[in-house]
């Protein structure tokens, strides 16, 4: 038999444990291993089961409001469309490419007309060529005719060229604004002609 206090084996018939002095009035049939296990469990204290973290609940949320990724984070599905590409050959937004075709008049109009395949950009590029190319042509004609006798009406020529310069500035600003706003703004007669050329490849 074993001592119920310390677990040591005692002599049969003994009334006290020789190791710890505990009384042995009621013989203990508890095995040493069971007593040792109880003492160990008493020293360690009660064990509490570890509960798992509760799963986030989506009750009451619509399909659009419910989180789509782990822990409520959004999962990206697919790639977002590139900002500013818009299918132009230069990689610029259509409205910006159309605006740039007016920046240097017919020069930038030629550049964008030949490198772009987008009809919207090509339309504004051709309109830039026709408008500002025509204004440039008028200046060239005046400069050629001036030494041949046009100087005699210098006052009229000066007023004409001044009004033409003012008109070119107004058209330059107006057409750039309309192009940047994404409008297919057509000038009378010239716009229809530019649209015809824009569809050609």
Mind summarizing the main beta sheet? none
Structural class: mainly alpha
Q: Specify Rg, calculated over alpha carbons.
A: 48 Å
Look at the structure and give the mean pLDDT: 72
| Count of separate DSSP helical elements | 6
Strand residue percentage: under 5%
How many distinct folded domains?
A: 2
- SSE topology string: HHHHHH
Shape descriptor: rod-shaped
Share of helix among residues? 40-55%
Low-pLDDT stretches are 27-42, 61-85
Distance between the termini: 109 Å
Number of strands: 0
Verbal overview:
With 201 residues, this protein is an all-alpha fold. The protein folds into 2 domains: 1-42, no CATH class; 94-198, no CATH class. The chain is 48% helix and 0% strand. It contains 6 helices and no strands. The protein has helices spanning 32-44, 94-103, 106-115, 119-145, 154-180, 190-198. α2 (94-103) runs antiparallel to α3 and α2 (94-103) packs antiparallel against α5 (154-180). It starts with 31 loop residues before the first helix and ends with a helix. 17% of the residues are buried. Residues 27-42 and 61-85 have low confidence and may be disordered.
Which terms would index this structure?
201 residues, mainly alpha, single chain, 48% helix, rod-shaped
Give the structure's gist in a few sentences.
This protein is an all-alpha fold and 201 residues long.
